[in-house]
Amino acid sequence: MANDAHISGSGTLTSGEYNQIHISGSSRWNGPIHCKEFHVSGACSGSGVLTVTEDMHCSGSLKSDSSLDCGMIRISGSARIEGNVTGHKETHISGSLKCKSLYGGSISISGGLDAQGDVEADSFSFSGVGEIYGLLNAEEVDITVNGVPRVIKIGQIGGSRITIKTEGTAGFLRKLISGRSASAGEAVVGTIEGDDIDLTSTSADVVRGTNITLRSGCRIKRVEYTGNLTIEGDAQVEEQVRV
């Protein structure tokens, strides 16, 4: 039967299987580590894959030179993971996350995101600033760009329902800025493809879908649609094609 591990202050976890791990203070693991629960309050860094079958909760700072594979992930603070991050059920990040690729059932992030690869989930909710270098793919995509200057850059977005919006104050603040650039707060995306697409303050090369709504602050080079296309406010479209 796997043992529990409790560290208060500073300490090091050796590679192995554990039941529950509770860390308060500063610690390090020399992995791989496999456990049922992993709770950290403070700063924790590690070498080797960290596998948590149920709940992984970190309040503070988390760093790893490998991958993180968990049932549920809750991080309040900052996480820097050199490998992939997987939260099979849910992933909640309040603060910042940097990783290779991010996978999960339901992903919710408030703050900063830097994903060097892809992001794949059933649902993806994001509020803040950051960059996804590859493909963001989820059935439900809900992105809020907030603050000035704020920008999120994404290589590609694919999904069923895709919404990109700004906070209520962003529209007002944009009017106070002479001209319009990424510094006003926007999403910059290569290609967006989905069924129902609703965009505000978004710059994209191609938007392709069934029903598309483009609101104020959008600058789209090419739109391809099969259902309805709605263009509101100062949204700009260089080319629109019904296919």
Please report the number of helical segments.
1
**CA-CA gap between termini:** 61 Å
Radius of gyration, in angstroms, nearest whole number? 20 Å
SSE order in H/E notation? EEEEEEEHEEEEE
| Secondary structural class | mainly beta
Count of DSSP E strands?
12
Q: What's the story with the biggest beta sheet? A: 12 strands, parallel
Ordered list of secondary-structure elements with their pairings:
Elements: E1 3-47, E2 50-64, E3 68-81, E4 85-99, E5 102-115, E6 119-145, E7 151-166, H1 168-175, E8 186-199, E9 202-214, E10 219-225, E11 229-231, E12 236-242
Parallel strand pairs: 1-2, 2-3, 3-4, 4-5, 5-6, 6-7, 7-8, 8-9, 9-10, 9-11, 10-12
Overview of this protein structure:
This protein has 243 residues and is mainly β. The chain has two domains: 1-100, no CATH class; 124-243, no CATH class. 3% of the residues lie in helices and 78% in strands. It is built from one helix and twelve strands; from the N terminus they run βββββββαβββββ. The chain has one helix at residues 168-175, and strands spanning 3-47, 50-64, 68-81, 85-99, 102-115, 119-145, 151-166, 186-199, 202-214, 219-225, 229-231, 236-242. Strands 1, 2, 3, 4, 5, 6, 7, 8, 9, 10, 11 and 12 form a twelve-stranded parallel sheet that branches. Helix 1 links the parallel strand 7 and strand 8 (186-199). It is elongated, with a radius of gyration of 20 Å. Mean pLDDT is 90; it is low at 169-183.
